[in-house]
Amino acid sequence: MLAELVRAQLRAGAWRAARGHLAGRGGSPLAPAAADALVVAAGREYFYAASSLDAPEVAQAQACLAVLPHSAAAAAERDAIAAVLRLRDYGVELPPLQFRQVRARSPTPAGPSLTQPPGRPPVCAACMCGLRTARRAPAPARTPRRPWACNMAA
């Protein structure tokens, strides 16, 4: 019941009310995993509904994902959106719907990858743009860290 209320608040843009219900104001709080799933799903819905990167839905997606500021999943989504916005600075216009299609085929959970020459792994677009999230994969103990490897994937 609480999950449906929060989902409706997120869809209506009632960020403050949703934040309060997620924190447990007025009752028991929602489980962290369920809260993450609701906020990330609503943020993606806003972002993918945008017709361009200048549409107001992009700002709404960022505001929706800011409802859970300490969530690693929400931070990864915010960084993916920021990476797509930053790609515009380099002349790459990637509309939200196209980002969704690229992301669905992407080998990394962080988002689209840029292809590298043979023998080198793909590089995460968010990492190329200098964005980092709290979800960092630890470097393997036996192999040295490669500067082109994505550290955003968990």
Describe the structure.
The protein has 154 residues and is mainly α. It has a domain at 2-108. Helix content is 51%, strand content 3%. It is built from seven helices and two strands, in the order ααααααββα. It has helices at 2-12, 15-23, 32-49, 56-65, 72-87, 96-105, 125-128; strands at 113-114, 123-124. A two-stranded antiparallel ribbon has the order 1-2. A hairpin with an 8-residue loop joins β1 and β2. The radius of gyration is 17 Å and the shape is elongated. The chain starts with a helix and ends in a 26-residue tail after the last helix.
Question: What descriptors fit this protein?
Answer:
two-stranded antiparallel ribbon, single chain
Gyration radius from CA atoms, angstroms = 17 Å
Q: Segments where pLDDT lies below 50 for 5+ residues?
A: 110-117, 134-149
Strand order of the largest sheet: 1-2
Q: Give the overall silhouette.
A: elongated
The SS-based structural class is: mainly alpha
Helical proportion, percent range: 40-55%
Order of helices and strands: HHHHHHEEH
Please give the count of helices: 7
Say how many strands there are. 2
In terms of DSSP E residues, the strand content is under 5%
Distance between the termini: 31 Å
Mean pLDDT: 76
**The biggest beta sheet, please?**
2 strands, antiparallel
